[in-house]
Amino acid sequence: xxxxxxxxxxxxxxxxxxxxxxxxxxxxxxxxxxxxxxxxxxxxxxxxxxxxxxxxxxxxxxxxxxxxxxxxxxxxxxxxxxxxxxxxxxxxxxxxxxxxxxxxxxxxxxxxxxxxxxxxxxxxxxxxxxxxxxxxxxxxxxxxxxxxxxxxxxxxxxxxxxxxxxxxxxxxxxxxxxxxxxxxxxxxxxxxxxxxxxxxxxxxxxxxxxxxxxxxxxxxxxxxxxxxxxxxxxxxxxxxxxxxxxxxxxxxxxxxxxxxxxxxxxxxxxxxxxxxxxxxxxxxxxxxxxxxxxxxxxxxxxxxxxxxxxxxxxxxxxxxxxxxxxxxxxxxxxxxxxxxxxxxxxxxxxxxxxxxxxxxxxxxxxxxxxxxxxxxxxxxxxxxxxxxxxxxxxxxxxxxxxxxxxxxxxxxxxxxxxxxxxxxxxxxxxxxxxxxxxxxxx
Length: 442
Fold this sequence. Notes:
- The chain is mainly alpha-helical.
- It has one domain.
- Helices cover 68% and strands 4% of the residues.
- The chain is built from 21 helices and 6 strands.
- A two-stranded parallel ribbon has the order 1-2.
- Strand 5 and strand 6 form a beta hairpin.
- Helix 7 runs parallel beside helix 20, helix 8 packs across helix 9 and helix 12 runs antiparallel to helix 18.
């Protein structure tokens, strides 16, 4: 995929000038991409297409964003509400430069469950821990913005951010494969549709490949009676309208040790997301790293303050953008608005929740794979030397630990592979790098 900017005709430049007061300028004629170009964050396609792209983002994040609060004991509709509001806040703080959808972070599941089961933490104190993590991430963003991006570059060079992106993408592979195994035919139908629409079609079908695949797989599962009966019952019983439940948080020091390591995970995920978008669009977004961390930190803090899960950039949504070549924040805003609407309609939320796991597995198998390849691309663009023993030993070990979900237990505290893998990459690599360089120079 070429990342070069395609020259615009006078009429297209006129279209940009006529829309310069709007948040987004129309890309080309609003229906087709210009040559090999991508739709940047400040651009959009026509509103019908943008709405369809937003729905794709909504479907991509919906499964995990509803599962995480269910497992950790938070109200699902509250997390949906804060997921949408948090995404809108992120777009505002980053000044419309970084396309991102913030969904419930799966990295918090194990620490919160352990804090609840072994430490006796209540939902209110768990929310207090989420708020603390959000505030620390915000503080890191403020420091980066004040002192410059070099503050992070020393510990998170391209080899580190590429490893984090690759590890996140690959670590989600077992989840996708397990979902595919539950309903292989529906998953294969969804997967095949997404791949064919992405590779072999042009225009509208290529832009809506994920949405098309999910709808076809969903319809097949419905006519073959493969929809989950419990979810269908929940759909029938759910009211059309109802406000989300709000919970007041309580900050308790006993919960902090369980969640504080997740600060590094959220920082790595936000920076990795930014680097992935930069690599795919050919734009230098280093100047927005501080804003991204502030926006993500504030979104998590706000979510924890009223009963929502911790929020982070979603791998599946990066995959949607990579598949469609549309990086418009307008699509993220549409998805955020739809999430807010769903949070006030348990009936609609329950309807989307009937999408079978096999269908989601087929779609995410493509999306997570695309994200993993973005990590490889970051390495290639940076010319990473894989003959260097530091690179091979540290990054290889951390990635395998993350993908294999190697869990470490320290007393009652259990640290999953993605968590300690991210911490290991970010903290350990710079130290060993300096040690190796010092030995070579001596």
